[in-house]
Every structure is written in C-alpha cells, then in structure tokens.
Write a structure and sequence with these properties.
7-stranded mixed sheet, 10 helices, TIM Barrel
Amino acid sequence: MAKFKLRLNKGIKILFILLFLFNISEISAQLIIEGLHFADGKPVQVSVRDGKIEKIKRIKKLSDENNNLIIAPGFFDNQVNGFAGVSFSFGTSNLTKEGIQKATRELWKKGVTTYLPTLTTNSHDLLVENFKILAESVDAKNLLGSIPGFHLEGPYINPEDGYRGAHPKQFVKLPNWDEFIEMYKASGEKIVQVTIAPEMEGVQKFIKKCAELGIVIAVGHHNAGKEQLDLAVQNGAKISTHLGNGCANMINRHRNPLWPQLANNDLMISIICDGFHLLPEEIQVFYNVKGPDKTIITSDVTSYAALEPGEYKTQTGETIELTPEGMLRYPAQNVLYGSASPITKGVGHIMKVTGCSLSDAVQMASTNPANLYGLKDRGIMEPGKRADLILFTLEDFNVKIAKTYVKGELVYDISK
C-alpha cells in the first residue's frame, strides 16, 4: 500500500508539472489585446492564437490605465477602386503586385482589414489583364488574406450621362457572357460581386447566370423602374451599389430609380458616407428605411485619395478636381469621381447624421459585408473568428486608428 501511495504521489507531482508547463506554454503562445468593447465601452481582454480569436474576457479595468482605445473587428470595404496612388483599373492603370501590396498596407492604416479591389468600366483586355495580376497576387502571405475577392463595377451599366457617372462611355456595353467568363477565369474565379444596370438588354439573364455561380449581383449606375428592379432581385440581385449616386442630376419625382430600391425589402444598400456623396438627410432617409441590418457603409475610394488638392488629368484625358475639403469631382458632368475618403470617415459620419450607435456603425462596416459574401470567418469579434482587430479613438465622430491587427499580426501601430 505504501508503495502504491508513493507511486500515486509521484504520478500526481508529474501531472501537476505537466499541467504547469502546459499552462506556461499556453500563456506564452497567446497574444493578449485589451481595449474598450465597441458595443458597450467596457474593458475586455482578447486572447489570440494561430491568427484567430481564442477567448474574449471581461475585465474590471485595462492593464494600461492610459489606454482608452476602443477595440472592434476590422472594417470591410466592398468598393475600393484604388488607394495611395494605386489604381485597380482607371485609365491604363499599370497595376503591379507591388502596387497591390502598397494599397493594402495603406488601407490597414485606416482600419480596413478586408476589401474588394474594384475594377470599373474599361477595355476588356485591360480588365482581363488586371484580374490576372490580382489573382496572382492576393494569396501572398504578406497580404494575410485581406483580399477575398474582387468587385466588377460595369461595364454593363446605363450609358446615359449621369447614370454612367465617371465610367468612360466608349467602354460601356451590353452584357456578353463569354467575355465575362474570360474575366472570371482570369480572376481565378474570385469575382464575388458585379454591379450592373437591370434595365439594359440581356441583363436579367446575366443576373441568373451569375447567381448560379454564387456571385453577388448589385444594381448600380442604372435607371431601372420598379418592375425591372423587382425582377432583378427575384433573379438574384442582393444589393444596391452606392445608392443615391450613379444617378442623373435631373430625375422624375415619381418615376426614378431611387424609390424602387428603397421599397424593395429584399434589397440591401451600400452608401458612401464621406460627407460629399450624400446629404445628411439622404443618409437619414436611407438608414431609416433599411436600418442597420440592410445597410453597408462603403467608400468608393480611388487612388486620388493620396494626392494634394488641385486639378488632375486622368490617363484617359478627363479633367478631375480634388478640392481642399476632400471632394473628388468630375466637372464635365458636374458629378463626383469617386471618393478621396476611406471607410473610416464613413463610420463616424453615419453616427453623426443618423444618431446610430457605434455598434450599429461597426455592423454596417464589418459584419454586414462579411455576411453578404458568405465570409463566416470575419466581420465579428467572437471566439473562432479571424483576429482582424482594430484599436481606435472616437472623438467628435472622428475615428482615428491607433493599431490594426490582421489575422493576429500587428500590421499598423500609430506610435511606431
């Protein structure tokens, strides 16, 4: 019996030693991030392992009392035409792998941990070429999975001035399935959204085919009536691209493309909340109709965001103007030419004009787009999800990013 007890005691000691070593190993392998939870402002401790959130623990106070940073899931921008001098398809574009990496790094600084490079109306050859470059680049380890797919905006849109916006008219066309499939294959089958005009010939059939491939169809740059819009939704369209923009300045007060999109309860909307694309009352109405569950904040940001105010010639010869206030306009048609403000500005601005909570704003900038594209691994801060996290301050509705983590890796620190 004594020998048995001795062996038992030794066994217990060994077990305790193993458990101790296991716990030490566990602690050392974890990344601990603290902040004020975006939903209620109370301190939390987020444990990260292997690029994923392992645990979220409520704590009485932050370890660093001077740290008053809010923690939230990283933002997901579904419409990035370019950034920091890098264009994905404007003009002749000259897109490179290095340019994609630069744009991604700069977007991380703005709290954008996931985005869809957006290729707009251009020549078929250029679109095919740039989709190939993107497809060859997005799986690079240093991009950390920030680009899950691409958004094709056009060329199957309404060619009329106003509805066409800044898309070059010479490249606007009716849908051609064989041409699209060539682009789709060039993209590595990673085109996850296409923006089209429902009223154009052949578009409804095109929507059905895209839906069969699992591609999200968006309506935009269009002048579709109620029947055409409702049929598009019935065939598979799920969202309006930048509602209120890509629209003629002069429209009929009754029969116009806005009312059908607002009236269809099965259609989500994306809106640009940079303070220029939409008036405060427009944002209020859109938000009041659709609510936080069916609204996505997008940026429509372009490569010109990195430039100084002034007039610029595009590669296709158009003159555009970047005002000191940050508005990017196309004087020839008196319309906007995309945005010069990242989605970060939109998060604060929609709170200011609608009175919605930070939690609702984060849902519209992170959770909703992730759900729309079926990306269940991100867009929400909970155990098992990617550790795509941002730490920031919110003062006078201005979001200022302090740190950005992508897949658990610190990719931006304002103090460094």
